[in-house]
Amino acid sequence: MSVPSVTFNDGHKMPMFGLGTYLAKPGEVEEAVKYAIEVGYRHIDTAYVYENEKEIGQAIREKINDGTVKREDLFITTKLWCNSHKESEVVTACKQSLQNLGLDYVDLYLIHWPFAFKSGKELMPKDAAGNIEFQDTDYLETWKGMESCKQQELARSIGVSNFNSEQLERLVTNAQIKPVNNQVEVTLNLNQKPLLEVCKKLNITVTGFSPLGRPGNRHGIKNLWDEPQIQELAKKYNKSCANIACRFLLQRGVTPIPKSVTPSRIKENFDIFNFNLTSEEISRIEAMETGIRTATFGE
What we know:
Structural class: alpha/beta
InterPro entries: AKR (IPR020471), Aldo/ket_reductase_CS (IPR018170), NAD(P)_OxRdtase_dom_sf (IPR036812), NADP_OxRdtase_dom (IPR023210)
GO molecular function: oxidoreductase activity
Organism: Trichogramma brassicae
Pfam families: Aldo_ket_red
Strand content: 15-25%
Helix content: 25-40%
Number of strands: 12
Protein name: NADP-dependent oxidoreductase domain-containing protein
């Protein structure tokens, strides 16, 4: 099955569907990635803070070694964590992720969040009172380190994650190398229409994490899958509600990266390339937005 791709402002292409791996448990994520590649996924998303880069790298090597794919067939994304935001720390952090993954380069390297923690080994450095220790490092400084990663060919493309419109515009104004992508939460509840318009204006692509709205999230946030309109669309197209949610993102130019470690769901989630929602249906889904986030920092 052919997956459409989007072309970055630097000329590289990204498959417009991927496997998310946030909270994918050790012992599960390796098998999930191998199965996803067998199904047809070519875009795998991870991050240093997920602490699963090594397992994902092992899965990638196994599928390359058994002839299922070549390295150039795959699109691998990872992210710089908040404890390495000084310019002098970024390249070192990127090299550590590459070592974890067992790769010579990643296709996309992102600043995970637009704020910095105290530098060091701790992922979540805290003071005596248990509060996170932040550091006053401007993301413009961090971006200089990201540019070095691209210049040294450690990352083919560089971008950001969880940046708002104001932060993006400031970055684009000051960057030597323009970010190609902004990865943010995009769901039926939070369709991000204003941010998508800004990204389009800036020629920055958007990847949508948690496109399925984190079913069963601990906050008890209602998933719009249960709404009759979504149920009716699933029935009309003979698809799952997850398929409707991902197709909604795809047709609005957003690359969905649903997370799963369950083989049946990994396969089901991928089945979105043989139907189209109508423009009226897209508008109706947009109108259902509640604006509620299921993913906030630290969760």
